[in-house]
Write a structure and sequence with these properties.
five-stranded mixed sheet; globular; Nucleotidyltransferase, domain 5; single chain; alpha+beta; seven-stranded antiparallel sheet; 11 helices
Length: 406
């Protein structure tokens, strides 16, 4: 299996300054390569430059600028160029598919936060022994940096990334050949229905509360953002106080992000421990949180009709705050490590179908769901919580999927 391990680094002041310079120089390389591609396409008869062309120039670039580019790992600079190449590949794929292209942008110094080393020992070496609490990682041009290794690393370290989050530094190890640790069989199969009122409801009737981390700190976050707005761009006030205010907003978002991830890990682990098979709906969160299209007013040119954007924005915030996509990814990873099975099923009409798994009739109708919380079948009169009905229908579809693959 492939797994990633993320550990907090504890660099000295000098090492933190060197890590910042490494990010800055890789950002400069990224932006320079992007500018070269733009210029070649615009001024050289739409010539396309690939990764191989730019990688071949690295030796010359390092020789011309030994103070900035020459001091860092050659392979990490190649990884930065590959990163740009992937961005352009995704751009051209969107163009071919008729989607909104989104031309690649230049990275600001504060928005380029990751440098990758493609191989352990090439520009970066992970120095760790199971019994040694003083774990360190060595970066070319930086030195040996202390790492808070809170759990053992299993498998073979393939790539190493250094990542900056706010004022903290992290190391991310991508490992392969990670062994699975199967849990004892329980013989239990469960379906879960994701929601915003409850984080999820399972087919046994268990409701897991939605913590709403961003909503909880909404007042504090709004006050910090109002203070940040008093430092507009292009003014003399946009100096050190602005950086302090921006850091405050970033810390609040980071706290919510950590709390959300912790909640997801705990709930996913509980499901994996208690059930052999876990079913969930296939959710397109990107489509579900898309802003509604504008409605031009046919009677007044230049005017628009109400399209419910304000109400939809509130729903979008709730969905994104719940973080369904991240939770389902964590659940799939934990299930794979524990020898469990996760089965995604079609989400259509799960909350409008009278559940056969609970003795219902299988009737499908929009009118079956009386309110957000109540389900009452128009045909047979079956009454149940609407979220549990969705989970029961997921469970039924999981059973059909298992029978089809048996």
């Amino acid at each position: 299996m492939l797994r990633a391990y993320k550990f907090l680094m504890r660099p000295t002041v000098r090492q933190a300054r060197a890590l910042t310079e490494m990010l800055r120089d890789h950002c400069s390389l990224y932006n320079g390569a992007l500018q070269e591609r733009r210029d070649a396409y615009r001024h050289a008869s739409k010539t396309s430059i690939k990764y191989g062309n730019q990688s071949a120039q690295l030796k010359e670039i390092r020789a011309l600028d030994p103070e900035h580019q020459g001091r860092w790992s050659f392979s990490s600079q190649q990884a930065t160029l590959r990163r740009l190449d992937k961005v352009f590949a995704a751009f051209f794929r969107r163009v071919r598919n008729g989607e909104k292209p989104g031309y690649p942008r230049f990275k600001g110094a504060g928005h380029f936060d990751t440098v990758t080393f493609p191989r352990d020992g090439d520009g970066c070496r992970w120095d760790s022994t199971p019994q040694d609490p003083a774990t360190r990682v060595r970066f070319q041009g930086v030195g040996h940096v202390k790492v808070h290794q809170h759990r053992p690393v299993k498998g073979r370290v393939k790539t190493i990334s250094v990542k900056r989050e706010g004022r903290c530094w992290y190391i991310v190890l991508a490992c392969d050949e990670v062994p699975a640790v199967p849990l004892p069989a329980t013989g239990s199969i469960v379906g879960i229905d994701m929601g915003t009122v409850y984080f999820f409801t399972d087919s046994d009737g268990l409701h897991v509360q939605n913590p709403r981390f961003l909503e909880t700190m909404a007042k504090e976050l709004a006050a910090a953002q109002r203070h940040l707005a008093t430092f507009p761009k292009g003014t003399k006030r946009r100096t050190k106080p602005h950086r302090v205010a921006a850091r405050k907003v970033a810390k609040l978002y980071a706290r919510a992000r950590r709390q959300r991830a912790d909640h997801h890990h705990k709930q996913a682990l509980a499901l994996v421990r208690d059930h052999d098979v876990i079913g969930h709906e296939k959710l397109n969160t990107a489509g579900m949180t898309k802003a509604p299209a504008s409605k031009p007013d046919p009677e007044q040119p230049g005017a628009f009709l109400s399209n419910g954007a304000a109400a939809k924005a509130g729903l979008n915030r709730s969905i994104l705050d719940a973080g369904w996509g991240q939770f389902l990814r964590i659940l799939a990873n934990k299930a794979e490590s524990a020898g469990r099975r996760v089965v995604p099923v079609e989400a259509r009409n799960t909350s409008r179908t009278c559940p056969l798994a609970a003795g219902g009739c299988g009737h499908v109708s929009n009118g079956n769901r009386v309110t957000q919380a109540k389900f009452e079948c128009l045909k047979c009169g079956f009454v149940e919580n609407a979220d549990r009905v969705g989970a029961l229908n997921v469970l039924h579809r999981v059973g059909l999927a298992l029978c089809a693959t048996a």
